[in-house]
């Protein structure tokens, strides 16, 4: 282990982590950013990003992340292609152990993000980006005049379905039970939308199609009977999982594993700050994560000025 005590270590290389790095580096804090197993985060899985301000023609998700990485490096961020295995926040300086090294640091910014949950169907990942998506806001536009299905029955599924009716000719919601988990108001809104239909007690058992999706195979939850349902898109909205496992209970998390934040950026441990989807199951946008990264870096700067 290197004895040097760093000012800040940022864990995560999505929009939250990289934006925090740009701000921290420009404040001459000399941040070290640990990029993780999937550098760039969720945007690496998307194609065109059309809602990030500043790119009127849109930009490919991986290109946006490459630009943010370059910008963070330009001001001196050290980016480590390593994966965090464990942390020790019980004493200062904090310890961070990766698969290759161990770091000591005065502050930490947790920006590991979250991942959409998938149904884990045999052909789901193969057809991802070819009609299968977990983000209507990102991809809905590409489904103009198509008939699509939405998997899930929570608030997010209702919201995705309503959003999709702007583009799709018909949206069919597929819920695995009779009851919807969504709030009454969200369910009523979806039910009132003439473009949305509902099928309950149904499980999706596979996605069909060669080059692109052509349908889904459904299984009746009650009778077990299977049938194919033709559609031009499948949106999965069955929740997200934050990447907080390695924290091993060292900061406060909510029931679903999201970090609990107070005063915009603070975790339950002084000196450990939080940014982006790791604490946000509501907005989940690249731009909101980037904004949260900015706030975390500014708060780290202030913290270091008062605690050294
Ligand atoms: P939820 O956990 O609320 O709902 C998940 C849904 O997915 C449930 O219908 C669940 O079914 C279903 N599901 C889970 N796993 C599977 C599976 N393997 N196969 C089929 N269906 C499955 O997650 P959301 O993402 O909808 O919402 C997360 C939080 O964010 C909630 O607190 C929600 O209220 C909030 N939110 C609020 C919004 C708003 O107010 N505008 C918008 C979006 C989210 P089952 O019920 O059978 O378990």
Largest sheet: 7 strands, mixed
Summed up, the domain count is: 2
What is the number of E strands?
19
Q: Helix-strand pattern, N to C? A: EHEEEHEEEEEEHEHEHEEEEEEEH
Discrete helix count: 6
Bound molecules: NADPH dihydro-nicotinamide-adenine-dinucleotide phosphate
- What CATH calls the topology of the largest domain is FAD/NAD(P)-binding domain
The CATH homologous superfamily of the largest domain is termed FAD/NAD(P)-binding domain
Break the fold down into its secondary structure elements and pairings.
Elements: E1 5-11, H1 15-26, E2 32-34, E3 48-49, E4 59-60, H2 61-74, E5 78-80, E6 84-88, E7 94-98, E8 102-110, E9 114-116, E10 132-133, H3 136-139, E11 147-151, H4 155-164, E12 170-174, H5 184-192, E13 196-199, E14 202-208, E15 215-220, E16 226-230, E17 233-236, E18 240-242, E19 272-274, H6 286-306
Parallel strand pairs: 1-2, 1-8, 2-5, 8-19, 10-17, 11-12, 11-17, 12-13
Antiparallel strand pairs: 3-4, 6-7, 7-8, 9-18, 14-15, 15-16
The structure holds NADPH dihydro-nicotinamide-adenine-dinucleotide phosphate.
Q: Could you explain the architecture of this structure?
A:
The chain is an alpha/beta fold and 308 residues long. Helix content is 23%, strand content 27%. The chain has two domains: 5-115 and 240-306, FAD/NAD(P)-binding domain, CATH 3.50.50.60; 118-236, FAD/NAD(P)-binding domain, CATH 3.50.50.60. Strands 1, 2, 5, 6, 7, 8 and 19 form a seven-stranded mixed sheet that branches. It starts with a strand and ends with a helix. NADPH dihydro-nicotinamide-adenine-dinucleotide phosphate binds at residues 119, 151-157, 159, 176-177, 181, 238-239, 281-282.
């Amino acid at each position: 282990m290197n004895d040097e005590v760093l000012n800040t270590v940022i864990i995560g290389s999505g929009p939250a982590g990289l934006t925090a790095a740009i701000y921290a580096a420009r404040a001459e804090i000399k941040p070290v950013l640990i990029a993780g197993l999937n550098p760039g985060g969720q945007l690496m899985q998307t194609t065109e990003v059309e809602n990030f301000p500043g790119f009127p023609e849109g930009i490919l998700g991986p290109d946006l992340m490459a630009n943010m990485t370059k910008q963070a490096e330009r001001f001196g961020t050290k980016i480590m292609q390593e994966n965090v295995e464990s942390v020790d926040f019980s004493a200062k300086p904090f310890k961070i152990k990766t698969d290759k090294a161990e770091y000591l640091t005065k502050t930490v910014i947790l920006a590991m993000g979250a991942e959409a949950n998938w149904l884990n169907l045999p052909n789901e990942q193969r057809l991802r980006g070819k009609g299968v998506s977990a983000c209507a806001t990102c991809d809905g536009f590409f489904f103009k005049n198509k008939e699509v299905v939405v998997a899930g029955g929570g608030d997010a599924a209702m919201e995705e379905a309503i959003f999709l009716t702007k583009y799709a000719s018909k949206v069919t919601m597929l819920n695995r039970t009779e009851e919807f988990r969504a709030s009454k108001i969200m369910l009523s809104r979806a039910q009132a939308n003439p473009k949305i239909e509902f099928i309950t007690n149904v499980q999706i058992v596979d996605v069909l199609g060669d080059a692109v999706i052509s349908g889904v195979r459904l299984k009746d939850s009650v009778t077990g009977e299977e049938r194919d349902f033709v559609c031009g898109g499948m949106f999965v909205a069955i929740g997200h999982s934050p990447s907080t496992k390695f924290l091993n209970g060292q900061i406060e998390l909510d029931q679903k594993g999201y970090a609990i934040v107070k005063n915009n950026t603070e975790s339950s441990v002084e000196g450990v700050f939080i940014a982006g989807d790791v604490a946000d199951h509501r907005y989940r946008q690249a731009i909101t994560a980037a904004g949260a990264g900015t706030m975390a870096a500014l708060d780290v700067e202030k913290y270091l000025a008062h605690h050294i």
